[in-house]
Amino acid sequence: MKTAWILTGVVAANLMLWGADGAALAQKYGCMACHNIVGKKTAPAFRGVANRNMRFNGANAKSKIMQSIKNGSKGLYPNFPNGVMPPNPNIPQSDLETLADWILSQGMMRGRGMRGSMGPGQGMGPGRGMGQGRGMMTPPPTN
Ligand code: HEC
Fold first, then answer.
1. Predicted structure pTM score
2. Which of 57, 79, 95, 131 gives 61 a disulfide partner, CB atoms 3.0 to 4.6 angstroms apart?
3. Alpha carbon of 43 to ligand 1 centroid (Å)
4. Which residue lies with its CA nearest to atom 42 of ligand 1?
5. Is 2-118 assigned to CATH 1.10.760.10?
6. Among 40, 51, 34, 41, which residue's Cα sits nearest to residue 108?
7. pLDDT of 57 strictly over 70
């Protein structure tokens, strides 16, 4: 998590020098008002969002996340029964991609830093720990 802190500060400061980064965009678009990277706020943590989408949407995880950011979302996270993700129709496609990549990079199965102890098949990989039926993960709606 140290990395995230450093990124948040340093990237915000350097935004004009080397382009937009997911963490800086999440600040810029006000996402962090409701979301944390790890840990509940009024919205599910981005780590949980990443894990859920990787588990249930696989190769489509990124496009699903981009859609949810753009069109909003509700009802996917039972720990947030009244939570509504507002639509963001004005975020440019390239920023949606940066945000989606960044959110996915927070996941435990792919995330940096935790691969050694928590990689697939260990620790909290699929089928254990926060797998289906627990934590923040539920099957996707059948539509
Ligand atoms: C007003 C509070 C609020 C703000 C601001 C907000 N979100 Fe959310 N977000 C939520 C809630 C609540 C949910 C859970 C919705 C659900 O249960 O489907 C959510 C869900 C999500 C999801 C998961 C959707 C899925 O398909 O799994 C993503 C990704 C996400 N938000 C990204 C963002 C990004 C990026 C921003 C900034 C552009 C943002 N959010 C701003 C409240 C917010």
1. 0.73
2. 57
3. 6
4. 85
5. yes
6. 51
7. yes
